[in-house]
Amino acid sequence: MRISIIGTGYVGLSTGVGFAVKGNEVICVDVIPEKVNMINKGISPIYEPGMNEKLMEVLDKGLIEATSDLKKAVMATHISFISVGTPSREDGSIDLKYIKEVSKQIGEVLRNKEGYHVIVVKSTVVPGTTENVVIKNLEEHSGKKAGEDFGVCMNPEFLREGKALEDFLNPDRIVIGSIDKRSGDVLEELYKNFNAPILRTDLKTAEMIKYASNAFLATKISFANEIGNICKKLGIDVNEVMRGVGMDHRISPYFLNAGAGFGGSCFPKDVKALINKAIEVGYEPKLLEQTIKVNEKQKVKLVEQLKEKIGNLNGKTITVLGLAFKPNSDDIREAPAINIISKLLEKGAKVKAYDPKAVENMRKIFPNVLYADDMKSALKNSDACLIVTDWGEFKQLEDKDFDVMRNKVILEGRKVLDKNKVSNFDGICW
Question: Per-residue confidence at 268, pLDDT binned at 50, 70, 90?
Fold first, then answer.
């Protein structure tokens, strides 16, 4: 099929490249010319392992291109995926400005397009958005009727940053919410060569599945952190506890790793949006509210532990290893490192930081922090080291690597260091 993908963030680009890998012809649309040029040159505008190689592969086959011309892309394709961002407002509610604008633009194109076209919402939106915002705009600006003249689906993504392309090509499940059977049938045909169960639902159910999934995973993490904090006071290694808990097939071992809290573009934003939506419809979501509160406290717990160990932080040089919210990503959105650095600076500490990929993104927030080119430079003459992201290279650290520090105080917010290689360190929950 011929597909247009509107928005080339990690979801949009992974979707576009993924469908091209499956043999479809794909046009990616973005309003930022630099991103369009990079994609057409085979350079991924986002850091995602394996993306450059696959992008170049499908470019060489003539299966993908990028443009800033939305009209051209929609007119030349059978299906259009909306993959624009849905950021949070200050109150935690979802900001639909990009969704609104794109749905209006697509509607204007459909006004003059012949044939049946399917619009698929891939962006994460709260239940009711596709029906009350997207369809409304499409109909108003096209002069046509959804479910008759054009199709509409909601197809949530379940991609992990750092493994987005892998997840797209090998999904656990494919959820297709549709306004009618015909719309869903077209999208199901597109997924026919994917090896995954397909669940067909209505639009609002598909939207809610995405939020419920992320809220549950976020809650598992906060639960593990809550238990971890109790274990710390009892002298118990929470990792051993969660290993035992995760062996229960009803629970599974996934997302039970206690640590410095969750971040990223999805969990914090989606849980807050669901909380806001629940309150809007008259329900108080206490469990979800506590999931966020536990996480916010967890993010700065390392700083509290550091104060207990070395006292006043004013004038002390503290090394922060790991800035991205997770390894294999340069994404710092809602990253615990942001909260940690803010708190350290607030206490008068001098901060040195290192991350294999996320330095330039963090520099935009904290331009006055000293950013190192490697771990050794970051550790040199420091009074303490906080390990915040579990990058693979941090797992190779040994006692000799910390010898360059002024004071050998080491705290890890992720389970990274090997006791056989590093003799004296402390963990956030262990």
Answer: very high
User: d(Cα 279, Cα 135) in Å, to the nearest integer?
Assistant: 24
Cα angle: 24, vertex 30, 36; to 5 degrees? 80
- 266 is known as an active-site residue: yes
Question: Active-site residue among 153, 231, 266, 385?
Answer: 266
Domains and CATH numbers, the chain: 2-201 (3.40.50.720), 211-297 (1.10.1040.10), 300-427 (3.40.50.720)
pLDDT for the residue numbered 348: 98
- Residues 382/406, Cβ–Cβ less than 8 Å: yes
Confirm if 358 and 331 have CB atoms less than 8 A apart. Answer: yes
326: three-class secondary structure by DSSP: coil
Model-wide pTM > 0.90: yes
| DSSP code, position 150 | E
| pLDDT tens profile 200-230 | 999 999 999 999 999 999 999 999 999 999 9
